[in-house]
């Protein structure tokens, strides 16, 4: 007679416990994997069926296969030990590999850097790369690029660490200049130079800050007395107006609508012209006859008219302190007439004298407008809304002005295809732009002399 009849309630009160196949257990971690070059082993766990064996795999076999270390194709690793790297300390120096060729040992590094292609930059950086193609890509010749790298070397250079090799100075500068010249999105810049997106963004800001710190004092400064005398002579030969030390102009740089104080950055004129809501910040600059900036004021909201931007600038502060005596700065009708600032007549029914004066002022203004046109044409990032944060944008724009001056001073060829046309806002200042009675008399005197000496207004006689 069967002592254990089969009934629905007949269950084994003490079932045999199954051993859990925990991948975190010590037994699992003690497994060792071998390849064909290792010595044979008698461990039955390593003699499991192949992936094409018709026999089903056991749960333990599946866990073993899933936990095998996989080859790493995207990162450079000095070894395959899945441990968190630790910094070397003087008490515990990093391991050293012996050099098989002799000559001592070399320090072993763990390079946790994603493997990206740098073929494009390696090609551009090659000595045999054509200079014309290099100029087309970076808006400057190799010699000018080398000079900039040399000037910034000590400021932007980084040291190698235990985790990675530092990016070379030339590549750092190239990332910044390429980004400014093309306005290419950081995603594409990173692929082009074989770097991470955040790394490229960081490099652009670091190099721009270095340009502002190192190169701006050398290439963007108000001229001294000797240079100012030469500038006056050149402007007088162009227009006949004496004592002109610079031509002032203000342009707008489009930005993404900020989160705070949006109305202050709203650009009404650009919105009406383009039929699209526009936000911007201003760049005010004074240029010499060759189109080199001698003074810049960057970052005021786009809703501010030119005369208000002027009053916020250091140029206005220097003039108020009497540092611009015996010097005229020429602007358009958006600026006020002052003792040191000449602007055209804005009244209706101009006389021949006034019309002739306005023509000569326009010739001086043409130098400033052409300079801003080359600035925006050479550095395309200024033509469209940028990804740079609003508080970081003045540093980037200042770097563009410095690089513009370097190219102008070194007579870098400007590609006509990059020509960009700037537009006046045509916003008249308050009180008809009259800030000084003596300035009115001085302007009338200059206009009379131009007509009297046959320099201006002769076409209407």
H/E element order: HHEEHHHHHHHEHEEHHEEHHH
Radius of gyration: 35 Å
Principal-axis shape: elongated
| Count of strand segments | 7
Question: Helix content range of the residues, please?
Answer: 25-40%
Number of helices: 15
Find the structural class using helix and strand composition. Answer: alpha/beta
Residue windows where pLDDT falls under 50 for at least 5 positions: 1-12, 22-85, 88-105
Alpha carbon gap, first and last residue: 140 Å
Rounded mean pLDDT score: 80
Strand order of the largest sheet: 5-4-3-6-7
In short:
The chain is an alpha/beta fold and 461 residues long. It has helices at residues 26-29, 59-66, 119-124, 131-138, 142-156, 169-182, 186-193, 197-219, 225-239, 268-274, 306-311, 314-320, 352-378, 393-409, 437-452, and strands at residues 96-98, 105-107, 244-255, 279-287, 293-301, 328-330, 341-342.
